[in-house]
Specification:
Elements lengths: L11 E4 L7 H7 L2 E2 L3 E4 L13 E4 L3 E3 L6 E3 L9 E4 L2 E2 L7 E9 L5 E9 L2 E11 L6 E13 L1 E10 L5 E7 L5 E7 L2 E13 L3 E7 L3 E10 L4 E14 L3 H15 L4 H19 L1 E4 L2 H16 L23 E2 H14 L5 H21 L10 E3 L2 E2 L6 H4 L2 H17 L2 H22 L1 E3 L4 E3 L17 H19 L3 H6 L4 H12 L37 H5 L8 H8 L6 H12 L9 H11 L3 H12 L13 H15 L3 E3 L2 E4 L9 E8 L2 E8 L3 E7 L3 E5 L2 E5 L1
Helix pairs in contact: 4-18, 5-18, 6-8, 6-9, 8-9, 8-10, 9-10, 10-12, 10-14, 14-16, 16-17, 16-18, 17-18
Protein name: Maltose phosphorylase
Family: Belongs to the glycosyl hydrolase 65 family.
GO molecular function, one term: carbohydrate binding
Length: 717
């Protein structure tokens, strides 16, 4: 029987298995967030340990002392409670704990941990619940209940704010309202944490303030007799910003905690349930006939909702800020997977937010191109919270495909939303910068009388510093063509505003028409690059990809980290016929090691287009439980969760958008009775239900539209 970390339940992650060896893994899966704050809780399983919960605020960065790269700074732990019973610290040791319960409710975001604790003089039930608020992103609420079952117990409950060495402490104390506060600063960034607490008990508890050079805390002491109980509630608010505005940051935190301080935990949970209910009303996916898949899709959607970008895609982090050592970081794949997922899932994720991050990064991308002696804009391979992450040579300067993917995101955005106002201003400014970048980066081959790009690296990082890369040349060709199409529509005044002269457009057209595109071989397989061509159809059976195989060895083999040729065929599929798609899928599929979180979605969607339904379904099911059944405690894989959404929408449902019109050719996996999901498109909310026999598309919000369903025009109203 297959063993899962949590019980299979459509709306919960729950277990009654104590299993101390799984606590770190569970803490990863129960990571909570609201797009601004993120918390990963750790359970104390040894009397010598202290709780090691980690809290982050999105955008609060420092430098990693080891690799000198930006990382998210760990805030003071604001949620952990220290409990002593009869002067002994409570820890989750197997000989003292029974009736263990751990639960994450996907309907309201509340994490619950409870257990019965056996002390030599007393037996107690201890339960802690908490959530990071989806209603107020600055806030979190924590509640601990201790109830006496037998005996008598002297109980101490303590909360604190403590410096952790990640920042310089600026101030700490207790304000006039009795709330604890701690202010910290790192470089030019600062934060303030406020913690209010209260005791509710049918017996007397006394309060004491504790502090030293690095911490300030509140301790409550009392004695439980008969069946007495005590409830300890903490209300927390966090604010961050420029260090020069520390006074305003403190004021913001004070205002935010005042909104929730003293409110009943149950009432605050009711408000959270309403916020979660609104999300599920607009984004739920139902799978009948596969309970593990149902739990998996709801868990993935819940984590995407909790980690949603509150401002723009710059605040997205592929690891969800849940890494043990610090920051989550996002790559070009995040724009491909997460951006499309949020557009389809979140009704309040305004479409132009999707593009706002690209425009805000334009000056940095232009500066980056200039540092390489090039014109235009060169967008980063990797970033954290919108800041470029330096890459080792040669990847940092050779991964020039990122700019083409920016152009594709713009085209995709226009295809979905037809936002002409954005395109004729910010969008065209970006596109022109991309065309200028490629025009200045191109190389001329005199013998062939063709242009190409030399010394480049594509998404498959097993092959770097290559020449004549198919994906890069093809996407650059497409980018130049798209920019020419869009600028052709401009008036002379608009061209002048963008400083585009006729000679420049003529050069772009010359480069496009004479850019060398690597030709397929006799079997229609497209080589990744000139250096990959000798590897085509090479007998690799004697050398299998195993752990520890060196990068040098991989570069001499036909294996690929991710199939960039298939990515290009997926993005530009209308330009290639089915035999070419099939030949390349069949060749690269068995050679791809999927070292990228989004790689399998590329294969799944192409497989669906080629009617390889079993392959698509198998990948989708793996993605749904990639984290839930993972045994590594390091971090969440939010890009995989976003990619699972792409596989559902563009794989199983085979949704495509061509010239602004939606088309779909869904299929239902054989072992499912039905599935349904919600999809946002051009200001409309659709609910799509698929069985083996019929597909139903229902318009829940918005004006009627015409779609293509299985090749037939249908009006949805």
């Amino acid at each position: 029987m297959e063993k899962h970390t949590f019980e299979i339940d459509p709306w919960h992650l729950r277990t009654t298995d104590f299993a101390p060896d799984k606590q770190q893994l569970r803490s990863k899966l129960l990571t909570s967030s609201n797009g601004y704050l993120t918390r990963r809780d750790f359970l104390v399983t040894d009397a010598t340990q202290k709780a090691k919960a980690v809290n982050y605020a999105n955008g609060l960065l420092g430098m990693d002392p080891v690799d000198t790269k930006p990382q998210l700074l760990a805030l003071p732990d604001f949620g952990t409670v220290a409990i002593t019973v009869n002067q002994t610290a409570v820890s989750l040791q197997p000989d003292k704990v029974s009736d263990f319960k751990l639960d994450f409710d996907l309907r309201n975001g509340v994490v619950t941990r409870g257990f019965t604790y056996q002390d030599p003089q007393a037996k107690l039930r201890i339960e802690t619940q908490y959530f990071l608020s989806q209603v107020n992103s600055h806030c979190g609420v924590f509640q601990t209940k201790v109830a006496l079952i037998t005996g008598e117990a002297g109980v101490t409950l303590s909360c604190e704010l403590r410096g952790n060495g990640a920042f310089d402490m600026k101030d700490k104390g207790q304000n006039a309202a009795g709330q604890l506060y701690l202010q910290g600063q790192k470089s030019d960034q600062a934060f303030s944490v406020l913690l209010a607490s209260a005791i509710d008990s049918d017996t007397t508890f006394t309060a004491d303030l504790t502090q030293d050079a690095v911490h300030i805390g509140q301790t409550y002491q009392g004695t439980l007799t008969k069946t007495a109980a005590v409830t300890f509630t903490r209300w927390v608010a966090v604010a961050t910003g420029p260090a020069a505005q520390l006074a305003q940051i403190q004021q913001t935190a004070s205002q935010q905690v005042a909104k929730i301080n003293g409110q009943a935990f149950s009432g605050l949970v009711a408000a959270e349930k309403a916020a979660w209910g609104n999300f599920w009303d607009n984004a739920d996916c139902v799978i009948e006939g596969d309970r593990p898949a149902q739990q998996g899709i709801r868990y993935n959607l819940a984590q995407l909702f909790m980690h949603r970008p509150l401002v723009n895609l710059n605040s997205w982090s592929a690891d969800g800020a849940s890494r043990l050592t610090g920051a989550g970081r996002s790559t070009w794949a995040s724009g491909f997977a997460a951006g499309n997922a949020f557009l389809g899932l979140l009704t309040d994720f305004k479409p132009n937010r999707y593009m706002l991050d690209l425009y805000e990064q334009l000056p940095l991308a232009q500066k980056r191109a200039g540092e390489l002696g090039l014109k235009g804009a060169f967008y980063p391979l990797t970033q954290i919270a919108g800041k470029n992450l330096p890459q080792a040579f040669p990847l940092g300067s050779e991964s020039i495909y990122t700019s083409a993917l920016v152009a594709y995101r713009l085209r995709n955005y226009m295809n979905y939303f037809s936002d002409k106002a954005f395109m004729h201003h910010q969008g065209l400014e970006i596109l022109v910068a991309l065309a200028r970048f490629y025009a200045s980066r191109v190389d001329y081959l005199p013998e062939a009388k063709r242009y190409t790009f030399l010394a480049v690296s594509g998404p498959n990082q097993f092959e770097i510093n290559s020449n004549n890369n198919w994906f890069i040349n093809t996407m650059a060709h497409w980018t130049l063509d798209y920019v020419l199409q869009m600028t052709k529509q401009l008036s002379k005044a608009e061209l002048a505003a963008l400083q585009i002269k006729d000679q420049e457009r003529t050069r772009w057209a010359l480069l496009k028409d004479n850019l060398q595109l690597p030709a397929p071989d006799a079997e229609s397989v497209l080589p990744q690059s000139d250096s990959y061509r000798p590897k085509l159809h090479h007998d690799y059976s004697a050398i299998l990809p195993v752990a520890g195989l060196s990068q040098d060895r991989y570069q001499r083999l036909p294996y690929v980290q991710q199939a960039e040729v298939l990515l290009g065929l997926l993005l530009l599929g209308d330009d290639f016929d089915k035999p070419v798609l099939l030949a390349n899928y069949n060749y690269y599929d068995s050679l791809t090691l999927h070292r990228s979180q989004t790689s399998e979605s590329i294969h799944a969607i192409l497989a669906a287009q080629l009617d390889k339904k079993v392959a698509t379904t198998d990948i989708f099911k793996r993605q749904l439980r990639f984290d839930l059944d993972d045994t590594a405690p390091a971090q969440l894989h939010l890009d995989t969760m976003a990619a699972s959404w792409l596989t559902l929408v563009h794989g199983l449902a085979r949704i495509q958008v061509t010239n602004g019109q939606l088309s779909l050719r869904p299929f239902c996996p054989r072992d499912w009775q039905r599935y349904s999901f919600h999809f946002n498109f051009q200001g409309r909310l659709l609910e799509i239900t698929v069985t083996a026999e019929v597909t139903e598309v229902q318009l829940l919000k918005g004006i009627p539209l015409t779609i293509q369903l299985d090749g037939h025009g249908v009006i949805i109203e």
